[in-house]
C-alpha cells in the first residue's frame, strides 16, 4: 500500500472516531437521561410590562421584630413630609420630595405615633406620651406610664391612649393627664374608639368559653363609665343622640335558613335600648352538615354613607339606612363571590365593593353598576402587600418587584425594583409615593397621569 492510500485511510478512520460516539449506539454503552416523574409547564405565566421608575431617594428605618410588626408604626407621610423612626429609635422628619432630613427628635422612642393637625403624638419605650410640632419643636410630654401602649387616638381636644384593658385621656394642648381607667379582667380591650357629644365609646371582647364583642361608653371629661352593652359591635353610626350597633346573634338565633342582621339602637347618653331593626333574608344554600355560618359573606353588614350593605351568602343587598321599614325589601341585590377564602373588606371604592381572597392574597372587586366580579390577581409572583390610593392599586410581590395598576382597567402603570421580599404598607403625600420594603423607605415621584 503506497503512502497516499495509507494517508487517505487514516483520515477516514480519524473522521469515524469522531462520529462514532454520536451514532454508533450498538458499539458503545447506552447513555440515558433520568426522566421527570411529572413535568408541567405554565403557558399562562404573565410578565408585567411597565416602565421601571427609579426612586428619588432611600432611607433606613427601625427594624421591628416580626411578632410586633403588624401593630407597629415606623413611618408616616403627611403634608409633604415623612416622619420616620430611625434605627437608633429617634424620630426624623424628611422632605418627601428630596429625602432631605429636616430634623430629629427624642431617644428610645417606641414604634407607635400618629399625626393630627400639625402635631405628632407618640410614646417612648418607657411609657411617656410626647407631642412634637411638625416643625420639630417639642411641645410637651407626660408620663402615663404605658410602656406597651397599643394605640393613640387624637379625638376632639384629647389624646386617648390604650394598652390592653387600660385607657387614658390627655389634654391635647397641655399634655395634662385628665383620667386613666382599667376595666376588669373579664374584658380584653381593642383599639377601636369613637367620641361623639362628650361620650367616648370603646370596643372590648368578653373573656370566657365563648367570646363576644361589647361596647362601653364613658364620659369623655371624667372617664366615668356611663353604660355598657354586651354582644354589640362598634357603632355603624351615631346620629341625633342615637347609637346604631349590630348585635352578635351566635347561640341566640342560629336558624340556617331564615337569617337576619339585627341593628340595636341605644340612647347615646344612657345606653337605654330605643329600638331594633331586622334586615331579613332566606338562605337556601345551607351547608351539607346543616351547620350555621356566621360573619363575613354569611351575615355581616357595613354602612357607606346612607347605604347599608348586608352580606347574605349568595347575595349582597343594599338598603337605604335612613328609610327603614320592617321587612322592607332591599333597593338592589347582587350575586357576591362565594368562597371559604373570600372575605369582604367592608368598603366601597370607585363604585366597587371590595373583597379579599386570602388563599392567594388577591383583591376581588364587584361593580355596583352591573354586578360584574373581577379578580385583580396579577403579576409574576404572589402579592405580599397591597394598597389602594384613589384609583391606583399598588402591590409588592414576593420577588421584590413593586407594581402599580389602574384599579379600573387593570393596566400596569409602572414598576419599582426593590432589594427585599418584605413589604410594609405604602405611604403617599402629594405626588410622592413612599414604598416601604426591607426596612427601607423609597421615595418615588408619581407620573402626572396618576397623581
Automatic annotation (TrEMBL):
GO MF entry, a single one: protein serine/threonine kinase activity
Alphabetically ordered keywords of this record: Kinase, Serine/threonine-protein kinase, Transferase
All residue ranges annotated as the Pyrrolo-quinoline quinone repeat domain in the record: 126-374
UniProt keyword Transferase present: yes
PANTHER family (alphabetical): CELL SURFACE PROTEIN, OUTER MEMBRANE PROTEIN ASSEMBLY FACTOR BAMB
Name this polypeptide is given: Serine/threonine protein kinase
Source organism: Paenibacillus helianthi
